[in-house]
Amino acid sequence: MIDQIRSGEKRGETIGPGYLIVLQIAFLVPLVMALLSQTLKNKANRLTNIIVGAVYVVLVIVVLLQYLEYQSVLAISSIFGIVISTLIVWYAYKWHEN
């Protein structure tokens, strides 16, 4: 996959700056969520975790299905990401304010 990115093509499609930006955003979402969990008030934190976590799970599933045949390491890390993001959504949903 790295060689394909270096060559500027992947599966016959041109890899442009937009593709690389999407990959970077997908990488940064969990880091930003960790920061927001520490800085937002409880209600906003809960809502943000539910919404962003659910969207992130869907995006990871789409990426996993698209590249499953090419990278087994990507598949394993994607499944791990799906499990963790789903747990974040579940715990945020079940969270009761004290």
Question: Short summary of the structure?
Answer:
With 98 residues, the protein is mainly alpha-helical. A hairpin with a 2-residue loop joins strand 1 and strand 2. The protein starts with a helix and ends with a helix.
Structural overview:
There is one protein chain. This protein is mostly helical and 98 residues long. It has a domain at 30-94. 80% of the residues lie in helices and 4% in strands. It contains four helices and two strands. The protein has helices at residues 2-7, 17-39, 42-67, 72-94, and strands at residues 9-10, 13-14. It has a two-stranded antiparallel sheet. Helix 2 packs antiparallel against helix 3 (42-67) and helix 3 (42-67) packs antiparallel against helix 4 (72-94). The radius of gyration is 16 Å and the shape is elongated. It starts with a helix and ends with a helix. The model has no long low-confidence stretch (mean pLDDT 75).
